Amino acid sequence: MALTTLDPKSALIVIDLQNGIVTLPAADLVEPVIKHAAALVEAFRAHKLPVVLVNVAGVAPGRSERGPRMGDAPPAGWTDLIPELNQQPEDHTVTKKTWGAFTNTGLADYLKEKGVTQVVLAGVATSIGVESTARQAQEFGFNVTLAVDAMADLNADAHLNSVTRIFPRLGETGTTQDVLALLKTTHA
C-alpha cells in the first residue's frame, strides 16, 4: 500500500546503522541509506517526535546454518551508532540481541507510553532487522510505514522480496521524501 498518511503521534525507528554493520561489504548500498536515515532523524526531531535508534549486540540463542555466531561481546566500537545519526539525549536507544527491535527490549511499552500509534522504519538489513521489526510493530498494533529508500540489504533479492511482497502486507511504503512531505503537512 502506498504511503497515504502519518499519524500525529508517529515515531521513527532506525535499525542497526552502527559501525560494525555499515562497514560490511556493499558500502555503496549503505551510503544513500545513511543520508536518507539522517534526513528522517533530523525531521522527526524538528517535529518533536520520538526517534528510536537501534543497534544489535548479539544474536538469539540456537543453532543456525549461517556462518560464525557472534559471541557475548562484539569487538570494540562494533555497536556504536554511526555519527551521521547525531545521537541526542532525547533519543531512545534500543540494544537488541535478536533480529527484531521489540523482543525483550521494552520498545513497545516505551512507544505506548509516548502515545505513539505509527512507526516509520529505516535501516539495515531490509530482510532481517527491518522486516523483523516491522512484523513485530504490526503485531503490537502500530501502523507501520517503511521508508524503502532508507534501507538496504546485502542480498538484492532479499531486499526486493521484502519491499515488494512482505512490506505491503505489513503497512505502507514510500520514499524518504514521501515521509518528509507528510511530516510537513501533518505537523504544520
UniProtKB/TrEMBL annotation:
Q: Which residues form the Isochorismatase-like domain?
A: 10-178
Q: Which GO terms describe its molecular function?
A: hydrolase activity
Instruction: Give the matching SUPFAM superfamilies.
Output: Isochorismatase-like hydrolases
Give a single Pfam family match.
Answer: Isochorismatase
Q: InterPro entries of this UniProt entry?
A: Isochorismatase-like_dom, Isochorismatase-like_hydrls, Isochorismatase-like_sf
UniProt superkingdom: Bacteria
Which UniProt keywords are given for this protein, alphabetically ordered? Hydrolase
Q: What is this protein called?
A: Isochorismatase hydrolase
Organism of derivation: Terriglobus saanensis (strain ATCC BAA-1853 / DSM 23119 / SP1PR4)
Q: What taxonomic ancestry is recorded?
A: Bacteria, Pseudomonadati, Acidobacteriota, Terriglobia, Terriglobales
